[in-house]
Amino acid sequence: MKLELRGITKRFGALTANDHIDLAIEPGEIHCLLGENGAGKSTLMNVLYGLYQADEGDIAIDGEVRSFAGPGDAMAAGIGMVHQHFMLIPVFTVAENVMLGHEQTRVGGRLDLAAARAKVREISDRFGFHVDPDAVVEDLPVGVQQRVEIIKALSRDAEVLVFDEPTAVLTPQETDELMATMRQLKAAGTSIVFITHKLREVREVADRITVIRLGKVVGEAEPTATNAELASLMVGRAVELTVHKEPPTLGDVALSVDSLTVTDEFGTVVVDDVSFQVRGGEVLAIAGVQGNGQTELTEALVGLQERVAGSARLNGRELIGRDVRAILDDGVGFVPEDRSVDGLVKEFSIAENLMLDRSFGEPFVSRGSVKPRVLAEFAREKIDEFDIRTQGPEQAAGRLSGGNQQKVVLARELSRELSLFIAAQPTRGVDVGSIEFIHKRIIETRDSGIPVIVISTELDEAAALADRIMVMYRGKVVGIVGGDASRDELGLMMAGERPGTTDGGTEA
Amino acid sequence: GAAPEEDTAGGEGATDFLPCIVSDFGGFDDKSFNQLSMEGVQEAADELGGEFKQVESNAETDYAPNLENLVAQGCNLITGVGFALAPATIENANANPDIDFVLVDDAGDADGDGQTDADNLKPLLYDTAQAAFLAGYLSAGYSESGKVGTFGGQEFPTVTIFMDGFKQGVDYYNEEKGADVQVVGWDGSTGTFTGGFEAGPEAKTAAQNIIDQGVDVLLPVGGPIYQSALQAIKEADRDIALIGADADLFETDPSTADVVLTSILKNMHLSTYEATMSSANGEFDATPYIGTLENDGVGLADLHDFADKVDQGLLDEVAALEESIIAGDVTVESYLG
Amino acid sequence: MTAVAEPVVSGAQRRVTIVSWKVPVIYAVVTVLFALLPLFAPRSGAATFRLVRSAEAAIQIPDVVLPANPTAWVCVVLMAAAAVFAVLRTRASQPTPLWTTVAFTIVLLIGFLAWAAAGSTLPMIGLLVGSLALATPLIFGALGGVIGERVGVVNIAIEGQLLAGAFSAAFVGSITGTPWLGLLAAMIAGLLVGLVLAVFAITYFVNQIIVGVVLNGLVAGLTTFFFSTMMADNTETLNSPELFRVISVPLLSEIPIIGPVLFQQTIVTYLMYAVVAIVWYGLYRTRWGLRLRAVGEHPQAADTVGINVARTRYLNVMLAGAIAGMGGAFYTLVSNPQFGREMTGGAGYIALAALIFGKWDPIRATLAALLFGFATNLQGVFSVIGSPVPSQFMLMLPYVVTLFAVAGLVGRSRPPAASGQPYIKE
Amino acid sequence: MTSAETAVPQPSRWHRALQQITTGGAAIAVLSMVLAMLAGSILIAITDPEVQAAAGYFFARPVDTFAAIWDAVSGAYIALFQGAVYNPHAATFAGQIKPLTESLKFATPLIAAGLGVGLAFRAGLFNIGGQGQMLMAAAAAGYVGAYMNLPVGLHLVLAVAAGIAGGAIWAGIAGYLKARTGAHEVILTIMLNNIAFYLLAWMLATQGILQAPGSNNPKTAPMEPTALLPQLLGESFNLHAGFLIALAAVAFTWWLLERSSLGFRLRAVGENPHAARVAGIDVSRSYVIVMLIAGGLVGIAGVSQVLGTVPTGFGGDIDAGMGFDAITVALLGRSTPLGILGAGILFGAFKAGGFSMQAAEQVPNEVVLVVQALIVLFIAAPPLVRAIFRLPDPAGPRRRKQNGKTKEVAR
Lengths: 508, 337, 426, 411
Ligand SMILES: Nc1ncnc2c1ncn2[C@@H]1O[C@H](COP(=O)(O)OP(=O)(O)OP(=O)(O)O)[C@@H](O)[C@H]1O
Ligand SMILES: Nc1ncnc2c1ncn2[C@@H]1O[C@H](COP(=O)(O)OP(=O)(O)OP(=O)(O)O)[C@@H](O)[C@H]1O
Ligand SMILES: [Mg+2]
Ligand SMILES: [Mg+2]
What we know:
The complex is a heterotetramer of chains A (508), B (337), C (426) and D (411). Chain A has 3 domains: 3-235, P-loop containing nucleotide triphosphate hydrolases (Rossmann fold), CATH 3.40.50; 240-331 and 418-508, 3-Layer(aba) Sandwich (Rossmann fold); 344-416, no CATH class. Chain A is built from 17 helices and 22 strands. Chain A has helices spanning 41-48, 71-76, 94-99, 113-127, 142-154, 172-187, 199-205, 227-235, 294-301, 324-329, 339-343, 350-354, 372-385, 402-414, 432-447, 459-465, 487-494, and strands at 3-12, 15-25, 30-34, 56-61, 64-66, 79-82, 160-164, 191-195, 208-213, 216-221, 253-263, 269-279, 283-287, 307-314, 317-318, 332-335, 365-366, 369-370, 420-424, 452-456, 468-473, 476-482. In chain A, strand 17 and strand 18 (369-370) form a beta hairpin. In chain A, helix 14 (402-414) packs parallel to helix 15. Residues 501-508 of chain A have low confidence and may be disordered. Chain B is 38% helix and 17% strand. Chain B has 10 helices and 12 strands. In chain B, the strands form 2 sheets. In chain B, strands 2-1-3-4-5-11 form a 6-stranded parallel β-sheet, sandwiched between helices. In chain B, strands 7-6-8-9-10-12 form a 6-stranded mixed β-sheet, sandwiched between helices. In chain B, strand 3 (77-81), helix 3 (86-95) and strand 4 form a beta-alpha-beta unit. Chain B is globular. Chain D has helices at 13-23, 25-47, 49-56, 62-84, 93-122, 130-147, 154-181, 185-204, 242-259, 261-271, 273-278, 283-309, 322-332, 337-361, 365-380, 382-389, 404-409. At the A-C interface, helix 2, helix 5 and strand 12 of A face helix 11 and helix 12 of C. Bound molecules: adenosine-5'-triphosphate (2 copies) and magnesium ion (2 copies). Residues 41-42, 84, 164 of chain A line the site of one magnesium ion (MG).
């Protein structure tokens, strides 16, 4: 089926998120939508899916104008969507999530879970997913949740499938598998709209590319276009896609982690006897598929985990056993993985978020009172310095786009006197322009002699930033390799294979 | 209906004497002391051919403003119902010497000197223990199971005075007759209370718990909770007699007729009526009134349908006992002395 | 998460057992506290447990007579043994099985009852029947709360729904002369309160807690107003509904102990059993429940699969109101055929506590309400059989028990994720 | 993002001013009152004996019915106004403005308790425990006030402090149990309400604790004069210094929430405990602290009751249901100190007016409760009020879909 969006306009108050956008999706094509954060991609897709009502414009299917009062209508018309933010009920099982909204029942109104399970298995097998229909979604790794979303969309026999940034949380392997799936679907005649910030993926699968900036279509591109061309089209300026960094000037060992073990509340050992060291002035990247202990490891270092054994000394001082505040006061900067939950208070202003972990004393607080003027001044400075796109320091952080929210967290953590900087997934879901900036700041931090730990599931990022890469699998360290290790080697390590030829130097 | 003539002059009534009354948190429909006191005032007002004003309180903090607002309305006599209104009533009485005040169930003696604290304040007190004593004696004699029961709403003296008198009456019976009738639900210092004055499931289970102990006479004390007791009695699989408190239940709630043995009367409507009338006639006298068996301020109600179910000998004994109490030969103890 | 090749770094993730000393500590503390009773306040005489309601019961069970103090000591020993067992299990890094806790609780209860009822007769049937009666409106209220919160609307208005139900049941029951219409009216009244809650909370996004608290005040004001202006003076015509009759279920009601407690009840109580079962089944096994829970957990996700969030919320909040309204009918069509001002006396708030205590689950909320009813009636029975403790402390008992149960045993509870959150669509 | 925002041209200044007046908060508040009072009129009319009498011959002479309704309703609301704000019939100026001071007196505990509930709200806790906290505060302040002999000044200070501490400790128990065990504060505070109720009942019935010496009634002795909150405007007015304490509490709470670093952390915990924890804020400790402060604020309400409003000794329902009113006050005031001040005064005025309405016109107390509840509902739902009065929506085109006019505006 051929899907056309004609002159779609969508406003949120004074803001025009979509401004007369025209887009045509041909049957059986993979159509990529590119654009920086806040360009209006998700909004456009939400209009298409009936979640938002367009202020102007029409949606036409095979030339016939249709109107969707809600997602139900869109689904009935054969449109499916995998949302940027998972639309799964965390406490439901996979089968329940998949059946939700088009449940089959048996006598007594009893849900036919068997049918739903069978459906999940069938789709799962067809595309080579391994998804247990009875697993509870919140217990699943995000990669699997992503698949559940896809199964959900496929279970309704959609003819047009929208994927809104599905790869932001996937490993390289998973991304490859997803793209294979997309090709499979396309071969079966399904049209796909694919939104991503990763240019490599675009060039790999796209048949056509449309670029959106500030709510308007700014152009189309061929899959053969270079990364640089695509990036500048998106952002409206030239973007440096590779991080320029000098070889590290290594200082002394600053952080020394010894037999660190973290157990979760159910008794699973999530970080298992991990030892490594980080020197001043180097970036250690921790790579690995999400859910293999990286998060818990960094959380243990800042005092956020409860059942921790072993030791971690920062400049000779033990971190384990002290509370979060003491550790932060020691100069540990921490960018948590989930910015919207752990990084920001969305209802607070940008300024307030910038002082979130410095509310106990100078510079923003004296004698129990906040100094609003000092804080406002500081906030303005950081908004400039970190190029946070906002109406002002008083704007609620939750109203910023994801990339800008991330910059607020970075600005907060990087403007303290640091002795160690830990950043988890610093660029997840962030557009290329912002990635360039964030990477630059991380390297600057390293170059000022501070030890840096970066967690990334993104191999490109790990490779771009790291001086050494430590790979974790099932809570254990598989190995530590140099920053120039090959993708293939890292991929194998992430699957738990010990590296054949490595000498990343645990002794470093 | 037909429309009245346009100008019915003087329809306002024959007097401009304005009696007023303030309830405590129970409200005027409590089938208990607020209601009875109000009925007395109402009756007086009707007889005088004038109006009266009634004002309900919902909480302790309402008493003072309610009284003050009635003063502002030009009331000539203001009755406060309940010990809780004492301080506010005393204060208003002292502030408004031209207005007569009546205080139900409290001596109006906050400073503890044994004197009422205002010259224009008439306390109405009721030694209900005397009447309850008779009820206790009657119940003990009536009981076949040898167990009688009582329970209250909240542990207030105006509640426990009934339970106390009742228990003393039973004890007296035991003494006189060498019997061993037990009182379930009150041992003279502590007992069963529902925690409130609502006729809800709490009151009903309290009644049931007492019935389960084998009593065949039950005295609930505390406004509407008698309804729950009545229901528990109806659902029990044997005959249990109910004793009313305050008003004659047989009259005020005919649905109790089958089970009500008698009621312990606290004739508040009589004394508020009299106080109101005397004030209207300019004969207001602030000396405290204490309702007793002697002055009919308290008493035992007629047995109505139960008259022939009770042994005449027992009735005679009760009548004799009443005389002895009036004569002071038998003393009933209560906080009123 | 499929591995490309067989992993070399060990197979499964290591697991250790988390040792929590909570259970043995609680056992020990409770045992010691209980031992204080026979130690410092020894009671002489025997406690008689009466297991039949009356002499006429078809199957007679003899009274169980236990000597008070010795029984208490035996129970202390058994409890101490359980505590030691728990310590050993914990030492061995094994969890203490649930049956130990059940047994521990039963032993504690027997010991306590024997001690407290020394020299008197404890009517067990009455104790249990009363507990059930006290719990019934709470259960209805809690179920109304469960449905409301599970669909994402905090229902503080349970108190108002109970009260409106009680009022309407009495009023309509009186003027129509049949309790059935009274019951229907109670449900409609509860439903209407739910509807107002829904309009303000769902359509106008007003803070749900405000609406709930205000509705409680509104219903209290309106019912008291109509009670005192209309009903109080016309009790016979407007405020004396016929009560539902007790129906003994054939056979079941003959079962010793359980029969008279559970199966000699009115239709309202049987409806309560049914509603608990239906709500449980519906919530976890049917399309209705699946959608309801989805809307309460993640309304936007529900929206994206074509579920009309507002409609789902409206219907279920109204349904919740109707169920709570039935609880109101218990007051005036089962307990006592008369409405009185604010006669629910805060039961709605206790129901709210029960549903949180029960972790937003219909069965557990029911159990929580039953626990509360039991504690309430236990104090009632003790005050009757003669307890030396001042009445005020006795009346405090159910609340203290709940407080300890919540703080000691239940701990953290997680509400439905979107409970209290309005769903605002662009 | 920024360039797209200028798309819609701004309407003229006058238009905007007009729009603000008709759609702003004040208009909504006034219209809400009008609506609620209209509803209240129905209740007033149906209970009025004159109306009932006239309605009996409605078809013979309907004018009478309407006249009677008008008399009843206008009389009631005039009485309400005269009891709450200004009474032109009083002889002296003092008498004329006395109603206003009465309203402020009734507002005092509502403001203080509202602050306690509102503060807890801002820190993410739903404090239903106002009743228990007030009762325990009253018990503590009452004990010091009635049964201790202390010098002038010190006595009052100590009694107030004891009351605040009583409320703080009672709320602190809930905070501590929540922090320690994770139990839900709603259950904890509801249970503590009931426990406080019976605990106070016991203390009031026990000689040597709170029961007045030599008395049998569950009531305390009057407060010693040295412990009384001074009357602010002399003997003829009942407004006492509790109002000043409440104002000070408003100022303190404002400072705490808007300016202090402690308040900053409490708010952070309230909005997002996860982020607060990651930022080094001790969430458990925050719960205890906020409940202690909230309980202290509610305690002021209890103190003002026993040392100011009812100085003659108190009994078991001295809270007068204000623990629950406080929830409405707090939320109506959007949990901001100034909002709570305003909402508290509004509710205080209704209380004061309600008494005069009942005394003067025999309108049942419950009418005021109903009107109050309706006002809150309407104020909380401006779109409903706007819809009823057909006022324009300030958000204007935002919610309107497929609107032809906006099409043109947006180039
Ligand atoms: N619900 C909303 N209310 C108000 N404004 C919104 C809303 N959703 C989106 N916007 C605005 O619309 C603009 C486009 O948002 P959209 O989510 O479409 O961006 P996007 O292109 O998907 O960005 P990203 O790459 O970050 O996902 C944003 O800048 C935002 O300001
Ligand atoms: N209620 C709202 N009012 C105004 N803007 C909003 C609102 N909700 C969301 N937005 C905007 O919508 C845009 C997209 O929101 P979304 O939550 O998708 O961002 P994100 O996914 O976290 O960030 P990223 O796009 O980088 O992944 C953001 O620009 C955000 O500012
Ligand atoms: Mg997006
Ligand atoms: Mg995004």
